[in-house]
Amino acid sequence: MAQISVSNLTFCYEGSFDNIFENVSFLLDTDWKLGFVGRNGKGKTTFLNLLQGKYEYQGTISSTTVFDYFPYCMTEKQMQQCCAAFATELKADCELWRVICELEKLQLTAEVLYRPFQTLSHGERTKVMLAVLFSGEHDFLLIDEPTNHLDQTSRESVKEYLRNKKGFILVSHDRDLLDACIDHVLVLNRCSIEVQSGNFSSWWENKSRMDAFHQMENEKHKKEIRRLQQAAERAADWADKNESTKIGFDPVKEHDRCKGTRAYIGAKTKKMQKRIMHMQKRIEDEIEEKEGLLQDIETPSELKLTPMRHHKEVLIVARDYGLAYDNTMDNANMSEEKCSDKYIVMQGFNFELRQGERVFLHGKNGCGKSSFIKAILQHNSKPELLHKNSVMHEDGTLTTASGLVISYINQDTSHLCGNLKAFSRANNLNESIFFAILRQLDLERVQFTKNMEDFSEGQKKKVLIAASLLQPAHLYIWDEPLNYIDVFSRVQIENLLLKFQPTMIAVEHDIRFQEKIATRVVEM
Predict the structure, then answer these.
(1) What is the spatial distance between Cα 514 and Cα 353, in angstroms, rounded to a whole number?
(2) 326 alpha-carbon distance from chain centroid
(3) DSSP label at 71?
(4) I want to staple 409 with a disulfide (CB 3.0 to 4.6 A). Which of 33, 309, 365, 478 is the partner?
(5) What pLDDT sits at residue 245?
(6) Strand partners, 171
(7) Residue 383 main-chain phi, psi, to 5 deg
(8) pLDDT tens across 86-138, in order?
Protein backbone atom coordinates (compact mmCIF):
# COMPACT_ATOMS: atom_id res chain seq x y z
CA MET A 1 0.00 0.00 0.00
CA ALA A 2 1.39 3.41 -1.00
CA GLN A 3 0.09 6.93 -1.34
CA ILE A 4 0.00 9.48 -4.14
CA SER A 5 0.41 13.01 -2.82
CA VAL A 6 -0.56 15.98 -4.98
CA SER A 7 0.48 19.35 -3.58
CA ASN A 8 -0.14 22.82 -5.07
CA LEU A 9 -0.49 21.41 -8.58
CA THR A 10 -0.81 24.06 -11.30
CA PHE A 11 -0.88 23.23 -15.00
CA CYS A 12 -1.92 24.75 -18.29
CA TYR A 13 -1.19 23.73 -21.87
CA GLU A 14 1.41 25.67 -23.80
CA GLY A 15 -0.20 28.54 -25.72
CA SER A 16 -3.34 28.42 -23.54
CA PHE A 17 -4.26 31.22 -21.14
CA ASP A 18 -6.57 29.22 -18.84
CA ASN A 19 -5.21 26.86 -16.17
CA ILE A 20 -6.50 23.31 -16.09
CA PHE A 21 -5.40 22.97 -12.45
CA GLU A 22 -4.51 25.78 -10.07
CA ASN A 23 -2.92 25.15 -6.66
CA VAL A 24 -4.82 21.90 -6.03
CA SER A 25 -3.81 19.44 -3.33
CA PHE A 26 -5.16 16.02 -2.33
CA LEU A 27 -4.03 12.57 -1.22
CA LEU A 28 -4.82 9.17 -2.82
CA ASP A 29 -4.20 5.60 -1.74
CA THR A 30 -2.96 3.07 -4.29
CA ASP A 31 -5.11 0.37 -2.71
CA TRP A 32 -8.32 2.19 -3.65
CA LYS A 33 -10.70 1.48 -6.50
CA LEU A 34 -11.04 5.12 -7.43
CA GLY A 35 -13.68 6.58 -9.74
CA PHE A 36 -12.73 9.85 -11.45
CA VAL A 37 -15.70 12.14 -12.16
CA GLY A 38 -15.98 15.61 -13.67
CA ARG A 39 -17.26 17.75 -16.49
CA ASN A 40 -15.89 17.33 -20.01
CA GLY A 41 -12.72 19.34 -20.46
CA LYS A 42 -12.04 19.71 -16.71
CA GLY A 43 -8.76 17.77 -16.96
CA LYS A 44 -9.37 14.09 -16.11
CA THR A 45 -7.23 12.66 -18.91
CA THR A 46 -4.75 15.50 -18.42
CA PHE A 47 -4.29 14.50 -14.77
CA LEU A 48 -3.64 10.88 -15.79
CA ASN A 49 -0.98 12.13 -18.20
CA LEU A 50 0.56 14.27 -15.44
CA LEU A 51 0.83 11.19 -13.23
CA GLN A 52 2.77 9.51 -16.03
CA GLY A 53 5.12 12.49 -16.29
CA LYS A 54 4.13 13.43 -19.82
CA TYR A 55 3.89 17.19 -19.12
CA GLU A 56 5.79 19.71 -17.08
CA TYR A 57 3.85 21.29 -14.21
CA GLN A 58 4.21 23.45 -11.12
CA GLY A 59 3.80 21.93 -7.68
CA THR A 60 4.58 18.35 -6.70
CA ILE A 61 3.19 14.87 -7.42
CA SER A 62 4.98 12.34 -5.23
CA SER A 63 4.55 8.57 -5.29
CA THR A 64 6.68 5.44 -5.20
CA THR A 65 4.31 3.44 -7.38
CA VAL A 66 4.56 2.68 -11.11
CA PHE A 67 1.71 3.85 -13.35
CA ASP A 68 0.30 2.11 -16.42
CA TYR A 69 -2.38 3.56 -18.71
CA PHE A 70 -5.37 2.24 -20.65
CA PRO A 71 -5.96 2.44 -23.58
CA TYR A 72 -2.57 1.64 -25.01
CA CYS A 73 -1.53 3.64 -28.05
CA MET A 74 -1.29 1.16 -30.91
CA THR A 75 0.99 1.65 -33.91
CA GLU A 76 -0.04 0.73 -37.43
CA LYS A 77 2.45 -2.12 -37.37
CA GLN A 78 1.01 -3.49 -34.11
CA MET A 79 -2.52 -3.32 -35.50
CA GLN A 80 -1.44 -5.78 -38.20
CA GLN A 81 0.28 -8.13 -35.74
CA CYS A 82 -1.20 -10.50 -33.18
CA CYS A 83 -1.08 -9.34 -29.58
CA ALA A 84 1.17 -12.23 -28.52
CA ALA A 85 3.91 -10.72 -30.70
CA PHE A 86 3.87 -7.21 -29.23
CA ALA A 87 2.45 -7.58 -25.69
CA THR A 88 5.88 -6.89 -24.13
CA GLU A 89 6.06 -3.65 -26.16
CA LEU A 90 2.92 -2.47 -24.36
CA LYS A 91 3.99 -3.67 -20.92
CA ALA A 92 7.66 -4.45 -20.37
CA ASP A 93 7.20 -7.19 -17.74
CA CYS A 94 4.20 -8.77 -19.46
CA GLU A 95 4.04 -12.58 -19.40
CA LEU A 96 1.60 -14.30 -21.76
CA TRP A 97 0.46 -16.88 -19.23
CA ARG A 98 -0.69 -14.05 -16.95
CA VAL A 99 -2.51 -12.38 -19.85
CA ILE A 100 -4.28 -15.67 -20.65
CA CYS A 101 -5.38 -16.00 -17.01
CA GLU A 102 -6.83 -12.47 -17.14
CA LEU A 103 -8.57 -13.18 -20.46
CA GLU A 104 -10.38 -16.13 -18.89
CA LYS A 105 -11.81 -13.76 -16.28
CA LEU A 106 -13.00 -11.57 -19.16
CA GLN A 107 -14.68 -14.58 -20.82
CA LEU A 108 -12.23 -14.74 -23.74
CA THR A 109 -9.93 -17.57 -24.84
CA ALA A 110 -6.21 -17.32 -25.61
CA GLU A 111 -7.08 -17.63 -29.30
CA VAL A 112 -7.60 -13.85 -29.57
CA LEU A 113 -3.90 -13.28 -28.78
CA TYR A 114 -2.96 -15.01 -32.02
CA ARG A 115 -5.23 -13.11 -34.39
CA PRO A 116 -4.21 -9.81 -36.05
CA PHE A 117 -5.27 -7.08 -33.66
CA GLN A 118 -7.13 -5.14 -36.36
CA THR A 119 -9.43 -8.14 -36.94
CA LEU A 120 -10.69 -8.04 -33.35
CA SER A 121 -13.98 -6.36 -32.45
CA HIS A 122 -14.03 -3.26 -30.21
CA GLY A 123 -14.99 -5.43 -27.26
CA GLU A 124 -12.22 -7.95 -27.91
CA ARG A 125 -9.62 -5.19 -28.27
CA THR A 126 -10.69 -3.62 -24.99
CA LYS A 127 -10.55 -6.94 -23.15
CA VAL A 128 -7.13 -7.86 -24.55
CA MET A 129 -5.70 -4.47 -23.50
CA LEU A 130 -7.25 -4.79 -20.03
CA ALA A 131 -5.77 -8.29 -19.69
CA VAL A 132 -2.32 -6.94 -20.59
CA LEU A 133 -2.83 -3.99 -18.21
CA PHE A 134 -3.71 -6.20 -15.22
CA SER A 135 -1.07 -8.86 -16.00
CA GLY A 136 1.56 -6.96 -14.02
CA GLU A 137 1.98 -6.70 -10.27
CA HIS A 138 2.05 -3.69 -7.93
CA ASP A 139 1.28 -1.15 -10.71
CA PHE A 140 -1.30 1.55 -10.10
CA LEU A 141 -3.51 1.50 -13.19
CA LEU A 142 -5.03 4.49 -14.97
CA ILE A 143 -8.10 3.36 -16.90
CA ASP A 144 -9.61 5.97 -19.21
CA GLU A 145 -13.21 5.28 -20.33
CA PRO A 146 -12.95 1.54 -21.10
CA THR A 147 -16.58 0.98 -22.11
CA ASN A 148 -17.03 3.50 -24.93
CA HIS A 149 -18.29 1.82 -28.12
CA LEU A 150 -18.88 -1.47 -26.27
CA ASP A 151 -22.19 -3.33 -26.44
CA GLN A 152 -24.10 -4.17 -23.27
CA THR A 153 -22.74 -7.73 -23.03
CA SER A 154 -19.14 -6.54 -23.25
CA ARG A 155 -19.85 -3.78 -20.73
CA GLU A 156 -21.21 -6.33 -18.27
CA SER A 157 -18.12 -8.54 -18.57
CA VAL A 158 -15.79 -5.54 -18.14
CA LYS A 159 -17.86 -4.39 -15.14
CA GLU A 160 -17.65 -7.81 -13.48
CA TYR A 161 -13.92 -7.94 -14.19
CA LEU A 162 -13.16 -4.54 -12.66
CA ARG A 163 -15.42 -5.28 -9.69
CA ASN A 164 -12.87 -7.86 -8.52
CA LYS A 165 -9.80 -5.66 -9.05
CA LYS A 166 -8.27 -2.89 -6.97
CA GLY A 167 -5.51 -0.31 -7.25
CA PHE A 168 -6.76 1.83 -10.13
CA ILE A 169 -8.25 5.13 -11.20
CA LEU A 170 -11.28 4.63 -13.45
CA VAL A 171 -12.38 7.55 -15.62
CA SER A 172 -15.93 6.86 -16.74
CA HIS A 173 -19.31 8.55 -17.16
CA ASP A 174 -21.19 5.25 -17.01
CA ARG A 175 -23.10 5.47 -13.72
CA ASP A 176 -23.81 1.74 -13.62
CA LEU A 177 -20.13 0.87 -14.10
CA LEU A 178 -18.98 3.33 -11.43
CA ASP A 179 -21.48 2.03 -8.88
CA ALA A 180 -20.34 -1.55 -9.44
CA CYS A 181 -16.56 -1.05 -9.47
CA ILE A 182 -15.38 1.73 -7.17
CA ASP A 183 -15.03 2.37 -3.43
CA HIS A 184 -13.78 5.99 -3.59
CA VAL A 185 -14.59 8.98 -5.79
CA LEU A 186 -12.24 11.72 -6.98
CA VAL A 187 -14.34 14.64 -8.22
CA LEU A 188 -13.27 17.64 -10.26
CA ASN A 189 -15.81 20.24 -9.19
CA ARG A 190 -16.14 23.64 -10.81
CA CYS A 191 -13.75 25.35 -8.40
CA SER A 192 -12.37 22.59 -6.20
CA ILE A 193 -11.29 18.95 -6.02
CA GLU A 194 -12.66 16.51 -3.46
CA VAL A 195 -12.09 12.88 -2.51
CA GLN A 196 -14.93 10.86 -0.95
CA SER A 197 -15.37 7.30 0.22
CA GLY A 198 -18.17 5.36 -1.51
CA ASN A 199 -19.45 4.76 -5.02
CA PHE A 200 -21.03 7.11 -7.55
CA SER A 201 -24.57 6.94 -6.13
CA SER A 202 -23.45 7.72 -2.57
CA TRP A 203 -21.40 10.67 -3.84
CA TRP A 204 -24.33 11.90 -5.97
CA GLU A 205 -26.68 11.72 -2.98
CA ASN A 206 -24.17 13.55 -0.76
CA LYS A 207 -23.66 16.19 -3.42
CA SER A 208 -27.42 16.69 -3.85
CA ARG A 209 -27.85 17.16 -0.10
CA MET A 210 -24.86 19.49 0.17
CA ASP A 211 -26.05 21.54 -2.81
CA ALA A 212 -29.52 21.86 -1.26
CA PHE A 213 -27.97 22.94 2.06
CA HIS A 214 -25.75 25.53 0.36
CA GLN A 215 -28.70 26.90 -1.61
CA MET A 216 -30.73 27.28 1.61
CA GLU A 217 -27.78 28.97 3.32
CA ASN A 218 -27.40 31.25 0.32
CA GLU A 219 -31.08 32.26 0.48
CA LYS A 220 -30.80 32.86 4.23
CA HIS A 221 -27.77 35.12 3.70
CA LYS A 222 -29.53 36.99 0.88
CA LYS A 223 -32.56 37.68 3.11
CA GLU A 224 -30.33 38.87 5.97
CA ILE A 225 -28.38 41.13 3.60
CA ARG A 226 -31.62 42.67 2.27
CA ARG A 227 -32.89 43.22 5.85
CA LEU A 228 -29.64 44.89 6.95
CA GLN A 229 -29.50 47.03 3.82
CA GLN A 230 -33.07 48.28 4.38
CA ALA A 231 -32.30 49.01 8.05
CA ALA A 232 -29.08 50.83 7.09
CA GLU A 233 -30.95 52.93 4.50
CA ARG A 234 -33.62 53.89 7.04
CA ALA A 235 -30.97 54.79 9.62
CA ALA A 236 -28.97 56.83 7.11
CA ASP A 237 -32.09 58.70 6.03
CA TRP A 238 -32.95 59.48 9.69
CA ALA A 239 -29.39 60.61 10.39
CA ASP A 240 -29.39 62.94 7.38
CA LYS A 241 -32.72 64.48 8.38
CA ASN A 242 -31.65 64.83 12.00
CA GLU A 243 -28.33 66.44 11.03
CA SER A 244 -30.13 68.98 8.86
CA THR A 245 -32.04 70.28 11.94
CA LYS A 246 -28.86 70.99 13.89
CA ILE A 247 -28.43 74.53 12.57
CA GLY A 248 -31.34 76.98 12.41
CA PHE A 249 -34.80 76.71 13.98
CA ASP A 250 -38.05 78.66 14.33
CA PRO A 251 -38.23 79.99 17.92
CA VAL A 252 -42.04 80.36 17.64
CA LYS A 253 -42.71 76.77 16.49
CA GLU A 254 -39.82 75.20 18.42
CA HIS A 255 -39.96 77.21 21.63
CA ASP A 256 -38.15 74.46 23.55
CA ARG A 257 -35.08 74.68 21.28
CA CYS A 258 -31.98 76.68 22.05
CA LYS A 259 -28.43 76.87 20.80
CA GLY A 260 -27.44 74.29 23.41
CA THR A 261 -29.49 71.54 21.70
CA ARG A 262 -27.10 71.61 18.71
CA ALA A 263 -24.55 69.44 20.56
CA TYR A 264 -27.30 66.99 21.60
CA ILE A 265 -28.53 66.59 18.00
CA GLY A 266 -24.92 66.12 16.76
CA ALA A 267 -24.29 63.41 19.38
CA LYS A 268 -27.46 61.52 18.38
CA THR A 269 -26.49 61.75 14.70
CA LYS A 270 -22.97 60.49 15.43
CA LYS A 271 -24.39 57.57 17.39
CA MET A 272 -26.70 56.69 14.50
CA GLN A 273 -23.81 56.91 12.00
CA LYS A 274 -21.81 54.46 14.11
CA ARG A 275 -24.80 52.15 14.06
CA ILE A 276 -24.89 52.44 10.25
CA MET A 277 -21.17 51.60 10.06
CA HIS A 278 -21.82 48.53 12.23
CA MET A 279 -24.63 47.46 9.88
CA GLN A 280 -22.34 47.88 6.86
CA LYS A 281 -19.76 45.67 8.54
CA ARG A 282 -22.41 43.02 9.18
CA ILE A 283 -23.49 43.25 5.54
CA GLU A 284 -19.89 42.72 4.41
CA ASP A 285 -19.57 39.71 6.74
CA GLU A 286 -22.81 38.20 5.38
CA ILE A 287 -21.63 38.70 1.79
CA GLU A 288 -18.28 37.10 2.62
CA GLU A 289 -20.04 34.07 4.15
CA LYS A 290 -22.31 33.87 1.12
CA GLU A 291 -19.39 33.90 -1.32
CA GLY A 292 -18.27 30.40 -2.32
CA LEU A 293 -21.48 28.67 -1.24
CA LEU A 294 -22.61 28.12 -4.84
CA GLN A 295 -19.21 27.89 -6.55
CA ASP A 296 -19.36 24.08 -6.96
CA ILE A 297 -23.12 23.71 -7.53
CA GLU A 298 -24.01 22.31 -10.93
CA THR A 299 -27.09 24.06 -12.30
CA PRO A 300 -27.54 22.72 -15.83
CA SER A 301 -29.67 24.95 -18.03
CA GLU A 302 -32.90 23.61 -19.47
CA LEU A 303 -32.27 22.64 -23.09
CA LYS A 304 -34.92 23.10 -25.75
CA LEU A 305 -35.94 20.98 -28.71
CA THR A 306 -38.30 21.73 -31.61
CA PRO A 307 -39.68 18.39 -32.82
CA MET A 308 -42.04 18.66 -35.79
CA ARG A 309 -45.26 16.79 -36.41
CA HIS A 310 -45.44 14.68 -39.57
CA HIS A 311 -48.71 14.13 -41.43
CA LYS A 312 -48.19 10.34 -41.34
CA GLU A 313 -48.43 8.22 -38.21
CA VAL A 314 -45.94 5.56 -39.35
CA LEU A 315 -42.59 7.06 -40.35
CA ILE A 316 -40.37 4.04 -41.11
CA VAL A 317 -41.22 0.47 -42.12
CA ALA A 318 -38.82 -2.44 -42.79
CA ARG A 319 -40.11 -5.82 -44.01
CA ASP A 320 -37.84 -8.88 -44.30
CA TYR A 321 -35.02 -6.41 -44.63
CA GLY A 322 -31.42 -7.43 -45.13
CA LEU A 323 -28.10 -5.63 -45.52
CA ALA A 324 -24.75 -6.90 -46.76
CA TYR A 325 -21.34 -5.43 -47.51
CA ASP A 326 -18.85 -6.39 -50.18
CA ASN A 327 -16.38 -8.99 -48.95
CA THR A 328 -13.53 -6.69 -50.04
CA MET A 329 -14.35 -4.29 -47.19
CA ASP A 330 -12.61 -4.29 -43.83
CA ASN A 331 -15.32 -5.91 -41.74
CA ALA A 332 -13.10 -6.70 -38.79
CA ASN A 333 -15.47 -5.15 -36.27
CA MET A 334 -18.59 -6.99 -37.46
CA SER A 335 -19.88 -10.46 -36.75
CA GLU A 336 -21.61 -11.00 -40.10
CA GLU A 337 -22.03 -14.34 -41.77
CA LYS A 338 -19.87 -14.73 -44.88
CA CYS A 339 -21.85 -15.56 -47.99
CA SER A 340 -19.98 -15.83 -51.33
CA ASP A 341 -18.55 -12.34 -51.99
CA LYS A 342 -20.62 -10.53 -49.34
CA TYR A 343 -20.75 -10.17 -45.56
CA ILE A 344 -24.33 -10.35 -44.35
CA VAL A 345 -24.98 -7.79 -41.64
CA MET A 346 -28.65 -8.53 -41.10
CA GLN A 347 -31.46 -10.40 -42.78
CA GLY A 348 -35.17 -10.95 -42.28
CA PHE A 349 -35.41 -7.85 -40.10
CA ASN A 350 -38.85 -6.33 -39.44
CA PHE A 351 -39.23 -2.88 -37.97
CA GLU A 352 -41.84 -0.14 -37.66
CA LEU A 353 -41.53 3.33 -36.15
CA ARG A 354 -44.56 5.40 -35.18
CA GLN A 355 -44.66 9.05 -34.21
CA GLY A 356 -43.91 9.68 -30.55
CA GLU A 357 -41.89 6.49 -30.07
CA ARG A 358 -38.33 6.54 -28.75
CA VAL A 359 -36.94 3.26 -30.00
CA PHE A 360 -33.55 2.02 -28.84
CA LEU A 361 -31.73 -0.50 -31.04
CA HIS A 362 -30.01 -3.03 -28.82
CA GLY A 363 -27.52 -5.77 -29.66
CA LYS A 364 -23.90 -6.82 -29.82
CA ASN A 365 -21.26 -4.82 -31.67
CA GLY A 366 -21.48 -5.69 -35.36
CA CYS A 367 -25.14 -6.77 -35.37
CA GLY A 368 -26.04 -4.00 -37.82
CA LYS A 369 -27.38 -1.14 -35.67
CA SER A 370 -25.31 1.61 -37.29
CA SER A 371 -25.65 0.01 -40.75
CA PHE A 372 -29.45 0.07 -40.43
CA ILE A 373 -29.30 3.75 -39.40
CA LYS A 374 -27.15 4.58 -42.44
CA ALA A 375 -29.61 2.75 -44.68
CA ILE A 376 -32.49 4.83 -43.25
CA LEU A 377 -30.55 8.04 -43.87
CA GLN A 378 -29.77 7.09 -47.47
CA HIS A 379 -33.34 5.98 -48.15
CA ASN A 380 -34.61 9.26 -46.78
CA SER A 381 -32.23 11.54 -48.71
CA LYS A 382 -30.94 9.71 -51.79
CA PRO A 383 -32.40 6.20 -52.05
CA GLU A 384 -30.82 5.68 -55.47
CA LEU A 385 -27.38 5.55 -53.83
CA LEU A 386 -28.18 2.24 -52.14
CA HIS A 387 -28.77 0.59 -55.51
CA LYS A 388 -25.84 2.20 -57.28
CA ASN A 389 -23.48 1.74 -54.36
CA SER A 390 -21.19 -1.25 -54.89
CA VAL A 391 -20.46 -1.52 -51.15
CA MET A 392 -23.82 -1.76 -49.36
CA HIS A 393 -26.49 -4.17 -50.69
CA GLU A 394 -30.06 -4.59 -49.40
CA ASP A 395 -32.87 -7.13 -49.59
CA GLY A 396 -36.52 -6.82 -48.66
CA THR A 397 -38.12 -3.41 -48.30
CA LEU A 398 -37.32 -0.30 -46.32
CA THR A 399 -39.56 2.76 -46.69
CA THR A 400 -39.51 6.16 -45.07
CA ALA A 401 -42.36 8.68 -45.02
CA SER A 402 -42.17 11.31 -47.74
CA GLY A 403 -40.81 14.67 -46.66
CA LEU A 404 -39.35 13.20 -43.47
CA VAL A 405 -36.85 15.57 -41.83
CA ILE A 406 -34.16 13.77 -39.82
CA SER A 407 -31.65 15.20 -37.33
CA TYR A 408 -28.69 12.84 -37.03
CA ILE A 409 -25.82 12.43 -34.54
CA ASN A 410 -22.96 10.27 -35.79
CA GLN A 411 -21.05 8.17 -33.26
CA ASP A 412 -17.81 9.22 -35.01
CA THR A 413 -16.27 12.63 -34.24
CA SER A 414 -13.09 12.28 -36.32
CA HIS A 415 -14.51 14.49 -39.11
CA LEU A 416 -14.70 17.54 -36.81
CA CYS A 417 -12.01 20.08 -37.63
CA GLY A 418 -11.60 23.86 -37.80
CA ASN A 419 -13.35 26.33 -35.51
CA LEU A 420 -16.95 26.47 -34.36
CA LYS A 421 -17.84 29.45 -36.54
CA ALA A 422 -16.80 27.58 -39.69
CA PHE A 423 -18.75 24.51 -38.48
CA SER A 424 -21.93 26.53 -37.93
CA ARG A 425 -21.65 28.13 -41.38
CA ALA A 426 -21.03 24.78 -43.08
CA ASN A 427 -24.12 23.29 -41.41
CA ASN A 428 -26.35 26.37 -41.88
CA LEU A 429 -26.73 26.89 -38.13
CA ASN A 430 -27.63 30.15 -36.44
CA GLU A 431 -24.28 30.99 -34.89
CA SER A 432 -25.52 32.88 -31.83
CA ILE A 433 -28.11 30.22 -30.92
CA PHE A 434 -25.58 27.43 -31.61
CA PHE A 435 -23.08 29.04 -29.25
CA ALA A 436 -25.81 29.57 -26.64
CA ILE A 437 -26.67 25.84 -26.70
CA LEU A 438 -22.99 24.96 -26.35
CA ARG A 439 -22.79 27.22 -23.30
CA GLN A 440 -25.87 25.47 -21.88
CA LEU A 441 -24.00 22.19 -22.40
CA ASP A 442 -21.18 23.69 -20.29
CA LEU A 443 -18.70 24.34 -23.10
CA GLU A 444 -16.56 27.22 -21.86
CA ARG A 445 -16.42 30.40 -23.94
CA VAL A 446 -12.65 30.05 -24.18
CA GLN A 447 -13.22 26.96 -26.35
CA PHE A 448 -15.08 28.99 -28.98
CA THR A 449 -11.81 30.37 -30.36
CA LYS A 450 -10.01 27.02 -30.48
CA ASN A 451 -9.99 24.45 -33.28
CA MET A 452 -12.11 21.38 -32.64
CA GLU A 453 -9.05 19.15 -33.09
CA ASP A 454 -7.95 20.47 -29.66
CA PHE A 455 -11.26 19.59 -27.98
CA SER A 456 -11.69 16.59 -25.70
CA GLU A 457 -13.83 13.78 -27.12
CA GLY A 458 -16.69 14.82 -24.83
CA GLN A 459 -16.52 18.41 -26.07
CA LYS A 460 -16.59 17.20 -29.69
CA LYS A 461 -19.68 15.12 -28.94
CA LYS A 462 -21.37 18.17 -27.44
CA VAL A 463 -20.81 20.03 -30.72
CA LEU A 464 -22.76 17.30 -32.56
CA ILE A 465 -25.50 17.26 -29.91
CA ALA A 466 -25.89 21.06 -30.04
CA ALA A 467 -26.15 20.97 -33.84
CA SER A 468 -28.85 18.29 -33.66
CA LEU A 469 -30.84 20.18 -31.00
CA LEU A 470 -30.83 23.26 -33.21
CA GLN A 471 -32.41 21.44 -36.14
CA PRO A 472 -36.23 21.12 -36.13
CA ALA A 473 -37.01 17.56 -37.25
CA HIS A 474 -39.69 14.90 -37.44
CA LEU A 475 -37.21 12.22 -36.36
CA TYR A 476 -34.03 12.35 -34.27
CA ILE A 477 -31.55 9.55 -34.96
CA TRP A 478 -28.75 9.48 -32.38
CA ASP A 479 -26.00 6.85 -32.74
CA GLU A 480 -24.20 6.45 -29.39
CA PRO A 481 -24.67 10.13 -28.45
CA LEU A 482 -23.40 9.77 -24.87
CA ASN A 483 -19.92 8.38 -25.52
CA TYR A 484 -17.51 10.58 -23.50
CA ILE A 485 -20.38 12.84 -22.29
CA ASP A 486 -20.15 13.76 -18.59
CA VAL A 487 -22.77 12.68 -16.05
CA PHE A 488 -24.26 16.16 -15.55
CA SER A 489 -24.89 16.57 -19.28
CA ARG A 490 -26.38 13.07 -19.46
CA VAL A 491 -28.95 14.01 -16.81
CA GLN A 492 -29.55 17.30 -18.66
CA ILE A 493 -30.23 15.43 -21.94
CA GLU A 494 -32.47 12.91 -20.15
CA ASN A 495 -34.62 15.76 -18.80
CA LEU A 496 -34.79 17.33 -22.27
CA LEU A 497 -36.01 14.16 -23.99
CA LEU A 498 -38.56 13.40 -21.27
CA LYS A 499 -39.95 16.93 -21.51
CA PHE A 500 -40.23 17.28 -25.31
CA GLN A 501 -40.72 13.56 -26.13
CA PRO A 502 -39.45 13.63 -29.73
CA THR A 503 -39.75 10.70 -32.11
CA MET A 504 -36.38 9.01 -31.91
CA ILE A 505 -34.24 6.08 -32.97
CA ALA A 506 -31.21 5.72 -30.71
CA VAL A 507 -28.28 3.41 -30.17
CA GLU A 508 -26.93 3.84 -26.64
CA HIS A 509 -25.38 1.31 -24.26
CA ASP A 510 -25.82 3.40 -21.09
CA ILE A 511 -28.38 1.15 -19.46
CA ARG A 512 -29.70 3.84 -17.09
CA PHE A 513 -30.22 6.28 -19.96
CA GLN A 514 -32.02 3.59 -21.94
CA GLU A 515 -34.28 2.67 -19.02
CA LYS A 516 -35.35 6.29 -18.56
CA ILE A 517 -35.81 7.33 -22.18
CA ALA A 518 -36.82 4.32 -24.30
CA THR A 519 -40.48 3.64 -25.00
CA ARG A 520 -39.44 0.43 -26.79
CA VAL A 521 -36.22 -1.58 -27.15
CA VAL A 522 -35.64 -3.57 -30.36
CA GLU A 523 -33.25 -6.52 -30.05
CA MET A 524 -31.09 -6.99 -33.14
Answers:
(1) 17
(2) 37
(3) S
(4) 478
(5) 66
(6) 36, 144
(7) -60, -25
(8) 999 999 889 999 999 999 999 889 999 999 998 887 788 899 999 999 998 88
